[in-house]
Specification:
Blueprint lengths: L8 H10 L4 H19 L2 E4 L1 H13 L10 E5 L26 H8 L3 E6 L27 H8 L6 E5 L5 H7 L2 E4 L19 E6 L2 H12 L15 E4 L10 H16 L3 E4 L9 H24 L5 H11 L3 H22 L4 E4 L20 H6 L3 E8 L5 E7 L5 H15 L7
Parallel strand pairs: 2-3, 2-4, 7-8, 7-9
Antiparallel strand pairs: 1-3, 4-6, 5-6, 5-10, 9-11, 10-11
Helix pairs in contact: 2-3, 7-13, 9-10, 9-11
């Protein structure tokens, strides 16, 4: 029997509705797993067990208030939470306690959910990692910047958690930690109340255990109730296999797993065509970097003026890089982004989704950085929906994933295609 702390979000919603267990029992199961594994993994920036149990008791005492009634969540620590510390992964914000919550948090609470705790983020959601380790192997990175959220879900500490992605900060840690990571289309989840890094590229996402869980939580976060009813495609999907301009960065294990995934999808009946992106996408990574660095510098210069000595060297470097980009180059990059977005829509055509690697391979054996986001950059630049789910283990015994990418605002279609694929080649093993 699956432990309550390892149960899927949809099963938890159903179990709470049927009265099979209470919010307090669920919360206590999560807290027990945190007590057991947190000292080694370090997924939480803040967690108050007594406060969490108090919220659970309040949920049990109240009539069901919404789709997520009585469910605890992990919230990435760049998202404001009223009355709860929000440290942004930086000593600059030590002791900061917001008076209001981010819009995404408010939507979860309006649906009956509550904050179990704040999950570790890289410094200001950029490069320098926090304390979190990969639950599969503590000497490996969990990915970033949403490291704590991915690790907490993978370790059974919480059924779902929120993250953000500017480059690869949802999809990559999901792949490294062996969970489902879903980044809806840009703008579908409101970003109010979240520390910005690049206003053009910042996008919200989520971590869950099953693809169908992603639709349920995305329905609340986006306000699109229909996403909670998404089902796997009734017929095999039409898929485009894209290795992308950074295929050579994938290690042998990731390349072999991707090829094996294509074989399995075809065997299951998928209509799968192997195609490469148009040549123009070779410049996508440079376009993304220009926009990100310019906007990060504009956003962070006031902090840099007062707190430069409290910033890491990589953060100071991206600010310096951004300050060296002129406004003409920035505007040209924004225009090129829109051109590439249109080109991607034409490329996708009538296909249900693109399939592509989510990362260069297994989580690297390091805690000094969070791995390369290169297999996520193009899709983050375009703002299209992307989802990663685990498909197996690599030679080091860590998860490998498969990424699906959909058309802009075609989130429901992507979820249906991903659910079909996960049914046929998904992987459900959990870290010991």
């Amino acid at each position: 029997m699956t432990a309550l702390s390892d149960t899927s979000l949809r099963a938890i919603v159903a179990g709470l509705r049927r009265g099979e267990f209470s919010s307090l029992q669920l919360t206590e199961a999560c807290l027990a797993r945190i007590a057991e594994r947190e000292p080694a993994i370090g997924a939480w920036a803040w967690c108050d067990p007594e406060a969490a149990k108090s919220r659970a008791r309040a949920a049990d005492a109240a009539p069901a208030a919404g789709l997520l009634h009585g469910i605890p969540f992990g919230i990435k620590d760049i998202m404001h939470t009223a009355g709860i510390p929000t440290g942004m992964g930086s000593i600059i914000f030590a002791g900061f306690v917001p008076e209001t919550s981010a819009a995404a948090v408010t939507r979860i609470e309006a649906a009956g959910g509550f904050v179990l705790g704040k999950t570790v983020t890289a410094e200001l959601a950029y490069f320098s990692p926090g304390k979190t380790r990969n639950p599969w192997n503590l000497t490996h990175t969990p990915g970033g910047s949403s490291s704590g959220s991915a690790a907490a879900v993978a370790a059974g500490m919480v059924p779902a958690a929120l993250g953000t992605q500017t480059n690869g900060s949802v999809i990559r840690p999901a792949a490294y930690c062996g969970v489902v990571g879903f980044k809806p289309s840009a703008g579908r989840i409101p970003g109010k109340g979240i520390q910005p890094f690049s206003v053009t590229l910042d996008q919200l996402g989520l971590f869950v255990r099953e693809v169908m869980d992603a639709g349920l939580l995305a329905a609340v976060l986006t306000g699109d109730a229909a996403l909670s009813e998404v089902q796997p495609l009734a017929q095999p999907p039409r898929l485009l296999a894209v290795r992308s301009p950074v295929w050579q960065e994938a290690d042998a294990a990731q390349q072999q797993m991707f090829e094996a995934n294509l074989v399995a999808l075809r065997a299951a009946g998928a209509e799968l065509v192997e195609r490469e992106l148009p040549a123009a996408f070779a410049e996508a990574h440079a376009v993304h970097r220009t926009i990100m660095a310019f906007e990060a510098a504009k956003q962070l210069v006031p902090l840099h003026v007062e707190h430069a000595e409290q910033m890491s060297e990589p953060l100071r470097q991206i600010i310096a890089e951004g300050l060296g980009i002129d406004s003409t180059s920035y505007r040209a990059a924004l225009a090129r982004r829109l051109e590439l977005r249109l080109a991607l829509a034409e490329f996708l055509g009538e296909a249900d989704a693109i399939v592509t690697p989510p990362a260069t391979g297994e989580a690297p054996k390091t805690l000094a950085h969070t791995g390369s986001p290169s297999f996520c950059t193009i899709w983050s630049l375009a703002g299209v929906p992307a989802l990663s789910f685990p498909v197996g283990l690599g030679p080091q015994g860590l998860p490998l994933g498969l990424q699906l990418v959909g058309g802009l605002n075609e989130d429901a279609g992507l979820l249906s295609a991903a659910a079909w694929c996960a049914e046929h080649i998904g992987f459900r093993e959990r870290p010991a």
